[in-house]
Specification:
Elements (H helix, E strand, L loop, with lengths): L2 E4 L1 E4 L2 E8 L15 H30 L1 H14 L2 H14 L3 H23 L1 H21 L14 E5 L4 H5 L6 E6 L9 H7 L3 E3 L4 H4 L5 E5 L4 E4 L3 H21 L7 E2 L5 E8 L8 H4 L4 E5 L13 H15 L3 E5 L27 H6 L1 H14 L4 E6 L5 H20 L9 E6 L2 H5 L1 H4 L5 E4 L1 H9 L17 H16 L3 E4 L10 H7 L3 E4 L4 H9 L3 H12 L4 H15 L1
Length: 577
């Protein structure tokens, strides 16, 4: 009899294949004293050295398979493995208490894990991220100290659905993507760290099923529906036939979407929209022509800075920005200035330790606090503006004053470049990312100075509800379709349009099918989404009749819950078909 499990949809598509169940690493470390302290210290150093070499190799493999963005996920563990102070703490404890390396390392790491767990409960995803990296490193270190093997997905020799309690970034790197049909886990949400990599490989994925490892066994046939978050174990022949048909329909639909690449995004009743791409790396711009993107709605410039030995200079930044602008041709490219802080730290920028980094030095605040760093980036951006339609966007804008200060620095650097005889584009734009409730409240005034807005819903929703979506205890409160979110979005759109400015959205909300009709009816001008979601969103918009959706806005804003909003959308859009 088939077993049906529901979880969180974390990667679209359907897969039907046998299960490969990954065992958990459960190393038992007992308290042990030793008379051979020097030997234990030597074993610890050797184990750290082996872990460093393995992680460096994994980093190279991640870069080759998935690019820089995925490789940066490994850097947190590499930083731990290379931390001489941390290693010395364990050595000191071995010498002080005459305990074995395995026991001492385990105790010391558990001490930090407890600290990170307590801090992540109150201070956000930054400490949760550090805890995940440290837990993964602990397994690797203990495997060497105890002479045990880590579960190795590299041993998979046939196409299968990976089933695990949880996966780590290092697990994903070891996968042969040709053999992975899909991924299912007991725990995790859309913010799970391994998803940064699995999404690059585009596996159908369902997480947070709670019990899949209890119900699934290796070689058992399973179906994954990564779009709807459903897993079927030991499906019936009828269920297999049904999902094979659905998979064929999805493939046919994707082929049909290819026709849209050279057409404008216009609704069924003539309203024009733009669907642009979210990019993290300059080399991703090579995919713009084949993705159907109508420009770039968000280029995350921080990936030029993160995990580099030295900060990128003006010249290297200029060439990266120029590459994206040239690839986009006459389409607009929105480049977000340096957005670090929170869970993205730059070691070259000495930000003091903060008890809550997500409410501290982030985004534009860092740029204004380090003006030379900011001015170097602005010069590179302005030089690149001569090669395309550039829009400069400041992240984490909270007040009109800080936006105007940043805007003035743009004007100053433009003047300096012109005095130096360096070409600058004539029609670049300067805008604000709206992701702080204060910016929503002051959107009418911000719109008087900004050339455009882009709503960053990922942070905006978290700040609206005072919720860390990486915290499993409160993640359920992160609700994109909540009327409170819709009201904030509607207010921001209205303020932009009142000043004759265009407005986009670059957060995850822009990719939610139930949100697209609402956003279109509110008058959102641009949807900026990952490359793989551009054509599906464009196809959905082309089927909408925006005028007939207008009554939906009034009812959705007056609703009491996301479920009520979703029901309203389903009712009206089904009526329009």
């Amino acid at each position: 009899m088939a077993t049906i499990l529901d979880g969180v949809a974390a990667g679209g598509g359907i897969a039907i294949a046998p299960v490969y169940r990954l065992g958990e690493s459960r190393f038992t470390v007992k308290a042990k004293y030793t008379d051979h302290v020097n030997h234990e210290v030597s074993r610890l150093h050797d184990s750290f050295s082996l872990a460093r070499r393995e992680l460096e190799d994994l980093h190279r493999r991640a870069h080759q398979k998935m690019g820089e963005k995925a490789a940066t996920v490994i850097d947190a563990q590499l930083a731990i493995a290379k931390d001489q102070t941390f290693e010395s703490e364990i050595v000191d404890a071995i010498q002080r208490y005459s305990t074995t390396a395995a026991w001492t390392a385990s105790q010391r790491i558990d001490h930090y894990l407890t600290i990170f767990k307590n801090q992540s409960a109150s201070q956000g995803n930054y400490y949760h991220s550090r805890g995940v990296a440290l837990q993964d490193f602990k397994k690797r270190l203990l495997a060497h100290l105890l002479d045990e093997e880590l579960p190795d997905l590299g041993k998979l020799d046939h196409r299968a659905i990976i089933v695990a309690h949880q996966l780590t970034p290092t697990d994903i790197i070891q996968l042969n993507p040709q053999l992975v049909a899909g991924i299912v886990t007991d725990v995790g949400g859309r913010a799970a760290h391994f998803l940064v990599m699995s999404k690059e490989m585009r596996f159908p994925t369902v997480v947070d099923t709670k019990v899949v490892t209890e119900r699934a066994a290796t070689d058992m046939v399973a179906i994954i529906d990564g779009t709807h978050g459903r897993v079927i174990l030991q499906p019936t022949p009828q269920q297999i036939d049904d999902y094979q048909r659905k998979a064929s329909q999805q493939s046919a639909h994707l082929r049909e979407l290819g026709v849209l690449k050279n057409q404008e995004t216009v609704s069924a009743d003539g309203h024009h929209f733009e669907v642009a791409a979210n990019l993290a790396l300059a080399r991703e711009s090579d995919e713009l022509a084949t993705s159907g993107a109508e420009g770039v709605g968000l280029f995350r410039s921080e990936f030029l800075f993160l995990h580099q030995k030295n900060l990128p200079d003006e010249e290297s930044q200029f060439w990266a920005y120029r590459k994206v602008l040239l690839a986009a041709g006459n389409q607009r490219v929105v480049i977000r200035t340096l957005d670090v802080g929170g869970d993205k730290q730059l070691p070259q920028v000495p930000i003091e330790h903060e008890h809550n980094p997500f409410l501290g030095m982030r985004g534009l605040r860092v740029s204004l606090a380090y003006p030379e760093l900011f001015r170097t980036q602005l010069r590179a951006l302005l030089r690149a503006s001569a090669y395309g339609r550039l829009a400069i966007m400041f992240p984490m804008v909270a007040t009109v004053d800080e936006f105007r200060r940043a805007q003035q620095m743009v004007d100053q650097e433009k003047k300096h470049l012109i005095q130096e005889g360096i070409p600058v584009g004539q029609e670049y734009e300067v805008g604000a990312m709206i992701e702080i409730p204060a910016a929503v409240a002051m959107a009418d005034q911000l719109a008087q100075y900004a050339d455009f807005f882009s709503i960053g819903t990922n942070d905006l929703i978290q700040y609206l509800f005072a919720v860390d979506r990486g915290n499993e205890h409160v993640a359920s409160l992160y609700q994109s379709l909540h009327p409170a979110v819709l009201r904030a979005v509607k207010q921001t759109i209205d303020c932009a349009h009142a000043e004759g400015k265009w407005i986009g959205m670059c957060g995850e909300m822009a990719t939610i099918p139930a949100a697209v009709p609402l956003l279109a009816a509110m008058g959102l001008d641009e949807f900026s989404v990952p490359l793989g979601q551009i054509l599906p969103i464009r196809s959905q918009i082309r089927r909408l009749k925006v005028r007939q959706l207008q009554p939906l806005i009034h009812h959705a804003l007056a609703a009491h819950s996301p479920a009520e909003v979703r029901a309203l959308v389903d009712q009206l859009t089904s009526y329009m078909k």
